[in-house]
Specification:
The chain is an alpha/beta fold. It folds into four domains: about 170 residues, P-loop containing nucleotide triphosphate hydrolases (Rossmann fold); about 70 residues; about 170 residues, Rossmann fold (3-Layer(aba) Sandwich), CATH 3.40.50; about 70 residues, no CATH class. It has 18 helices and 23 strands.
């Protein structure tokens, strides 16, 4: 699908639906935004691009009213726009689908979608009328997990993200921001989302689309704006520029290759999984992992990939099956698996991957505190020095090591989560969507790091919904469907169509 095919109009209207002009925002000594401008036109999609920490999220928080700009102006429908908060912005016609989920897990899908905008009559919620609006939004999403009465906490991460999108759909917004909306979605849900965006364009809605996937941006957007270090780095029509030029604008340098080749050899078996089953997933999963091997796991949402990794790490108890590490069995607890050399990076960094209220130092060193304990006391200086080392190694953008995790951008949080298992010096890395929310420059660094780990004799189980990275990085790819590992082959024996065919089989 070309950019022109996605366009509601090939000509940019004279008057933008939304205009943000020379926005500035400072947090203490940090200049988060400096003279940033962005325009969104009715029926078109503008892509907001930049590395993690470039200022994209801060700009959108200014748009939502979560932050007040220090200077600059905003116009909505050519009228001054000064939202006092996200709810005020939503009532004005601006809806934002954030990358980090902002849902009430104990409430139903319907209650989450309508939270704050309930249909009321005589002081009571008009359930029948409200249900009709919810069903209309869910019908556009066409996802089998999404029913109005389903409790959100029981949904997969991908389905929960669709609930966020449904909230924007029911608000009848005139400007909709999608912040990394496909980061947890399988291919068929991504295409469904693009169909929804096309319909929204046809209705004259102005859309701001934030993504690190340049192929997605070309599929869905008309124009682009690039930020780097809180400042404008470039803007224009996507048809007039190349991916290489956009990457250079993002990182301030060229990225020679996105998938660096790091030679490594497969040696003896280090992990054996036999007929592993859980409740309700996985189902009789069996595979072997060798020293120096990068084993990719692919599957659609609900295939059981995450559940398999959780059981390998001891977070969930298997109902049957056997796991041996270096020919030995261990207790099925995280502590025992860490001692056995396993490290786990969860796909849900906000819910369980990181302690949001604790510092970078605490999060990075928690699974290896004994390295900094002497005589029963914690060696704070040594721990801080180690944290600074890993922050520099993974280019974590933060004020200092004591900054609270919740104050970092999503991508920088993910870097800390990866740094934790590197610092832990694990022998077997269980990585669940490790590049989710990571910018293109850092992705290349993560891919190189994975290759270097394999070259050093470490082993990696790499779960991803993004086939190109699995095909480029892995030695072996296993494909899961409905909780079962249906096929595992050397990557050279797979093609993308074959993988997708297995993944959608029953």
């Amino acid at each position: 699908m070309t950019t022109e095919a996605m366009s509601h109009s090939s000509n940019t209207p004279e008057q933008p639906r939304l205009s943000m002009r020379r926005i500035c925002k400072r947090f203490g000594a940090t200049q988060a935004l400096q003279d940033v401008s962005l325009e969104a036109y009715a029926g078109q999609v503008v892509a907001l691009i930049g590395e993690n920490g470039a200022g994209k999220s801060t700009l959108m928080k200014v748009l939502s009213g979560a932050h007040a700009p220090d200077s600059g102006t905003m116009l909505l429908r050519d009228q001054p726009y000064h939202p006092r908060g996200p709810h005020d912005a939503r009532r004005a016609g601006v809806a934002i689908v954030y990358q980090e989920l902002n849902l009430a897990p104990e409430l139903s899908v319907e209650d989450n979608i309508m939270l704050g905008v309930e249909e009321r009559r005589l002081g009571f919620v008009a359930r029948r009328k409200q249900r009709q609006r919810v069903l209309q939004a869910l019908e556009l999403l066409e996802h089998p997990e999404l029913t109005p009465d389903r409790i959100v906490g029981s949904l997969s991460i991908g389905a929960q993200q669709l609930v966020e999108i449904a909230r924007a759909l029911v608000s009848q917004a005139e400007v909709v921001v999608f912040d990394e909306p496909t980061s947890s979605l399988p291919a068929h849900d991504v295409e469904r989302l693009f169909t929804i965006i096309r319909r929204m364009q046809g209705q004259g809605i102005a859309i701001i689309y934030i993504s690190h996937f340049l192929e997605e941006i070309r599929e869905v957007a008309n124009r682009y704006v690039v930020l780097r270090d809180g400042r404008p780095a470039g803007a224009g029509l996507l048809t007039d520029t190349s991916d290489e030029a956009i990457v250079t604008l993002m990182v301030g340098r060229t990225v020679d290759t996105l998938f660096p080749e790091v030679p490594h050899d497969l040696e003896e078996r280090v992990l054996e999984v036999q007929q592993l089953s859980g409740t309700p997933l996985p189902r009789q999963v069996s595979f072997e992992l060798h020293r120096g091997e990068i084993f990719g796991l692919f599957g659609l949402v609900g295939a059981g990939r995450t559940e398999t990794l959780r059981q390998l790490f001891g977070l969930d108890q298997p109902s049957s099956g056997c796991i041996t590490i270096d020919e030995r069995r261990t207790a099925a607890t995280p502590a025992a698996r860490i001692r056995a050399g396993l490290g786990f990076v969860s796909e849900d960094r906000k819910g369980e991957g990181l302690a949001q209220s604790m510092s970078i130092t605490d999060n990075l060193t928690l699974s290896n505190l004994r390295s900094y304990t002497r005589g029963g006391l914690l060696q704070l200086k040594k721990r801080r020095q180690a944290t600074l080392h890993w922050m520099e190694r993974l280019n974590v953008k933060a004020r200092d090591p004591e900054q609270t995790i919740s104050h970092l951008s999503g991508g920088n949080q993910q870097k800390v989560a990866i740094a934790r298992v590197l610092h832990q010096q694990a022998d077997i890395f269980l990585l669940d969507e490790p590049t989710r929310g990571i910018d293109v420059g850092t992705k290349a660094e993560i891919y190189r790091l994975i290759g270097e780990l394999a070259a050093a004799g470490r082993s990696i189980v790499f779960v991803s919904s993004y086939l190109p990275e699995l095909m480029a990085v892995c030695d072996t790819i296993g494909v899961m469907s409905r909780g079962r590992l249906l096929d595992a082959r050397p990557v050279l024996n797979w093609t993308e169509p074959e993988i997708l065919k297995v993944a959608i089989s029953s």
